[in-house]
Write a structure and sequence with these properties.
Length: 511
């Protein structure tokens, strides 16, 4: 309390308490006050209004950095690897029968047809499904959004490449004009919505605006929302368009690039050996004779050279440089840590620096995997699930797939989506942990297979074929437990149970 509060406290304690409470409230929100050291920049616009004039610039800057900046290229490469991976997002169909078990025959038929369609899923026929998913993932994260038009059934001028009449036309977000708004028709930034913000249609350019095809490319066409997939990286409620992942670190990345370029130029200049002749006192200067022109002098550099042509008072000096800058790496690494924090990445992955301890690297890997998992689930929700469900619908409607009568129709579209998983740092410890979990009943074999990015049903089929081939060849390994005990004789049910109990360490008394 100040002197006035102390004087009034015995007489008006309630009034003094209100003064103190008001003072605390004011001090608690002092961050909202603009001061000389606190600019208090504010964002008062809506999500759509804030992107109206900035989205195009942000998108173009990110693309340029992806073209020219090695750090940004490596960042998006790593995100592709951790979100989609080499084999793409695996889809494991799990249709159920009326008894609640997986209908293996129908699931296998779906898997086989899906694998065939995955060879050329998009309209040009140039990309496989994993390639298409990686390209769309990069576009989504770099540009903030990506588009695809679904071609279903008979389409004028297009011939489907598969028996399933379904293909995807990949489109960059430039096809969706950011400045096309007509509130009377419910169109905002090229997207048409109803009063409840449900999408009704997309208004797309007929050609890429960057192709310089004239005014004809600027004409738009209305595509119903049921035929479009729009994957967007949104950060605010009600945001219509997506924003690039690098939006918060663009300035930092540009500064790093410019700073490194300046340091490289300085290092190249300092690498050029430069010498000079230091003159003596003015009294030592000997002017040339009348009519004589003194030629420029050069000194050949060689081991053991002796320079004896210096004039009185002259000396040979060398221009020294403090490049390369010894503080460059520390400063650069500090900036890259901030870049990793703003892009859901990890410092080791962005900087390609793996010189930490085992514990530190594992902690970073575990925490970084949470960010990768989040992006992976968003990509599955935005892209993989709509593509698979619409493809399966067209496969059934076209007669390429016939639903068995004993399949529960409510489970036809059920599937498990599997992307890249966190790699094992210590395989022995990881495998031991999984083994203990399975034996204790806290995990199942399918979960272990998926943790290693394997399809459980394919793994079991491969194991069965492998064991059968080994038995035919007379090979016995520790994985074939029954064969080690009983040989070629097939065990009965009681013997199978005793073998299973022995494998899990459970001893039962003989009855």
């Amino acid at each position: 309390m100040n002197l006035l509060d102390k004087a009034l406290a015995p007489l008006f304690p309630g009034f003094v308490a209100e003064r103190l409470r008001a003072r605390n409230v004011i001090m608690a929100f002092e961050a909202a006050t603009v001061t000389r050291t606190h600019r208090a920049k504010k964002q008062t616009k809506s999500a759509d209004a804030s992107l109206n004039k900035t989205l195009k610039s942000l998108r173009e800057q990110c693309r340029k950095l992806d073209e020219d900046h090695d750090i940004v290229t490596g960042l998006f490469d790593r995100l592709e690897e951790r979100v989609v991976g080499g084999p793409g997002i695996a889809v494991e169909p799990i249709p159920l029968g009326y008894d609640g078990t997986i209908h293996a025959a129908f699931a296998a038929a779906i898997k086989a047809l899906w694998g065939e369609w995955s060879l050329t899923p998009e309209t040009s026929g140039e990309l496989t499904r994993p390639q298409m998913e990686r390209l769309m993932c990069r576009t989504w994260l770099r540009d903030g959004e990506g588009l695809a038009q679904m071609l279903m059934g008979k389409v004028p001028g297009y011939d489907h490449l598969h028996g399933v009449p379904f293909a995807l036309e990949l489109l960059e977000p430039d096809y969706l004009p950011i400045d096309y708004t007509d509130l009377s028709k419910g169109i905002v930034q090229g997207v048409e919505r109803n009063a409840w913000r449900r999408k009704r249609a997309y208004h797309l350019f007929k050609g890429h605006p960057g192709d310089q095809r004239g005014i004809f490319a600027q004409n738009t066409k209305r595509v119903p929302a049921e035929q479009m997939i729009h994957i967007a990286h949104r950060k605010r409620i009600g945001q219509n368009r997506g924003q690039p992942l690098l939006h918060a670190v663009l300035i930092r990345l540009a500064d790093i690039k410019d700073y490194e370029e300046s340091e490289r130029v300085a290092a190249r200049i300092s690498a050029a050996l430069a010498m000079y002749i230091k003159k003596g006192l003015p009294d030592d200067y000997i002017p040339p004779a009348e009519g004589q022109v003194r030629a420029e002098r050069t000194f050949p550099i060689a081991p053991g050279i002796v320079i004896d042509t210096l004039l009185p008072g002259e000396d040979v000096g060398m221009i020294e440089s403090n490049r390369p800058n010894p503080f460059l790496e520390g400063f650069r690494n500090g900036q890259l840590k901030a870049v990793a924090a703003g892009t859901r990445g990890t410092y080791s992955s962005v900087a390609r620096s793996y010189d930490g301890t085992y514990s530190a690297q594992r902690q970073e890997l575990v925490e970084g995997q949470l960010g990768y998992d989040l992006l992976q689930h968003e990509f599955i929700d935005y892209w993989c699930r709509p593509v698979y469900r619409k493809w399966l619908e067209m496969a059934i409607l076209s007669g390429q797939l016939v639903v068995p009568v004993d399949v529960d129709p409510r489970t036809i579209y059920g599937a498990f989506y599997q992307g890249p998983v966190m790699p094992w740092i210590n395989p022995v410890h990881e495998a031991t942990a999984w083994k203990l979990l399975v034996e204790a009943g806290f995990a199942d074999e399918a979960e272990v297979a998926r943790s290693r990015q394997r399809n459980p049903s394919e793994l079991k089929a491969s194991r069965k074929a492998e064991i059968a081939a080994n038995r035919e060849s007379g090979l016995v390994f520790s994985s074939d437990y029954y064969h080690q005990i009983y040989g070629k004789n097939q065990p009965n049910d009681d013997e199978k149970q005793r073998a299973a109990d022995a494998a899990t360490g459970i001893d039962k008394p003989d009855e």
